[in-house]
Amino acid sequence: MKLPLFAALFGSAAAFAPAPAAKTASSLSETAYNPEFNGEDFDPMGFAKMHEIKGAFPNMFPHPQFLEEAEIKHGRMAMLGWTGVWATEGLGWHFPGAPVADDWSTALPVWAREDPGGFGLILAFIMIAEGEGVSHAGDNFRGKSKKIPGDMGFDWMGMTKSLSEEKQARYKTVEKKNGRAAMIAMASLMAMKSIPGSVPIMDVIKVTAVGAH
Fold it and tell me: Quick check: 168 and 23 in contact, CB under 8 A?
């Protein structure tokens, strides 16, 4: 149950690695929101341009800086969550002495109830990390941030020092795409638990797994 959280602390240094060069708020606001699609934006609904709507209340819609930061963070959480679900449910991995729930969908309240100290520490860490990530760089909701979205300036293992700018850019794109896939996967798991039969592929996997045993 705690595996995704500890993995966030120790296993994802590359995701928080600093970018090779700092950019100003003005240059960030001119960066394409989804540059991986052959250098073109992929935004058929126009979400990244809603902040430009004339006549809307000031700061009613978020700037692309905020949208990209939110997408990267949610993608990272979904990747950790997906890994945690399969590590505990599929492989049966649990930390010795840690609370164990009957089902992954009820693990969070079980952990909070049986280990409030550990739960509180992780929650405090998340709050501090989130605050540090947005408090010093400027307001990305209005496009005033001076940091690259997703860059937490945390590379204690030095994983990016030997990488070229091209490879760093590629890994950033890979992280985004895997994060999007993980968000879809987690949404599918939630739908499967809430509405039985809503994700047919999961029923096929379950039948196949039972047949294999």
Answer: no
Q: How far apart are CA 206 and CA 48, in angstroms?
A: 39
At which residue do the structure tokens 């990747």 appear? 79
Amino acid at position 102, single letter: D
> Which residue shows structure tokens 């005033």?
144
Instruction: Tell me if residue 63 falls in helix, strand or coil.
Output: coil
Question: Tokens at residue 61, please?
Answer: 């819609």
24 and 104 Cβ atoms separated by less than 8 Å: no
The residue count for the chain: 213
Whether pTM exceeds 0.85: no
Token digits of residue 33? 């929101």
pLDDT digits (tens, 9 = 90+) for 113-135: 999 999 999 999 988 888 777 77
